[in-house]
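step: validate -> pass
step: tokenize input -> pass
step: predict -> running
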Amino acid sequence: MKTVFVLNGPNLNLLGTREPAVYGAQTLADVEQLCAAACARHGFALRFHQSNHEGTLLDWIHEAGRLHAAGQLAGVVLNAGAYTHTSIALPDAIKGTGVTLIELHISNVHARESFRHHSYLSAVAKAVMCGFGVPGYGLAIDAMALQAGG
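step: predict -> pass
step: emit ->
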């Protein structure tokens, strides 16, 4: 059984209370349940994490890379939050591990402040998804399954 890592960056632990007009009323626990159901549909194991710390996200990408090297990873769905627009280390880790990555955003970042329009992750991502709200997580896992041939 292959694994999908779903990684969430800073402030995503505040889902449900942080700017509900932008991010919706669903909580991170709701997102995890949605991801678990999507993974179960496709026969994937789920590793679901959130951290406000860049280094912790890097450690999880490195862990995903070890599974990738062993042929046990379907891919990574990454909502890096603000690190999307600031981190050089995250794309370096993605390139260094060779993981298949879908960059995900709950809101349409291109319809928001101009600083959100640039992503350091997009160049190393297999695909970029934004604006689908929380259901985008399930769509990203569905897309991962299509890429994996299932």
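step: describe -> The two ends are 12 Å apart (CA to CA).
step: cleanup -> pass
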